[in-house]
Amino acid sequence: MEIRQATMEDLTAILKIYERARVFMAEQGNPTQWGTTWPPESAVLEDIETGAGYVAVENGEILGVCHYRFGEDTEPTYRDIDGAWKRDGAYGVIHRIAAKRSGTGAGEVLIRWAIGRSGHLRIDTHEDNLPMRKLLKKLGFVHCGTITVRDGSKRMAFEI
């Protein structure tokens, strides 16, 4: 599987992946993390325009997508944590990670790729997102505490 920056030509495929991911999350008992509208097209466009949008591609098919960036997260949510980060210093961050369908391995490939790029990675997820929590544990992430996102809801914060 190849990881590359997302382009405007990828927009339709990315939006479909996020649509499917919202349905999957609801089916798995996690209907509130992304609700029915997150992430909005404007966030996807911003990811593409700023170079923070990445896709996992196999045989010409986009199987996964995420926002990845190295450096302090632009969202202030990681500055205040109920708990403690494992270490200070520059880090990579992944947001809005999703796979086209379960079982592709795209989520794991994207996270492993981000770890390889940064060596120090932070990620957060909803308490009800059991598939993601299981994957993070498998990859060696440590639960560091709880953060509050823009809408006031809580997320479990992890680091490796």
Give a nutshell description of this structure.
The chain is of the alpha+beta class and 160 residues long. It has helices spanning 11-27, 41-50, 106-118, 130-138; strands at 2-5, 53-58, 61-70, 82-83, 92-99, 121-125, 142-148, 154-159. The longest helix is centred in the N-terminal third of the chain and has 17 residues, at 11-27.
Give an overview of the whole structure.
The protein is of the alpha+beta class and 160 residues long. It contains 4 helices and 8 strands. The chain has one domain: Aminopeptidase. The chain has an 8-stranded mixed beta sheet with strand order 1-2-3-5-6-8-7-4. The two termini are 22 Å apart.
**Shape type:** globular
Radius of gyration: 15 Å
CATH class: Alpha Beta
Which segments are poorly predicted (pLDDT under 50) over 5 or more consecutive residues?
none
Strand order of the largest sheet: 1-2-3-5-6-8-7-4
How many strands, what sense, and barrel or not for the largest sheet? Answer: 8 strands, mixed
Distance between the termini: 22 Å
> Overall mean pLDDT score?
95
CATH architecture tag: 3-Layer(aba) Sandwich
Domains counted in the coordinates: how many? 1
Helix content: 25-40%
Order of helices and strands: EHHEEEEHEHEE
Record field, number of beta strands: 8
Number of helices: 4
Provide the β-strand percentage band.
25-35%
- The CATH homologous superfamily corresponds to Gcn5-related N-acetyltransferase (GNAT)
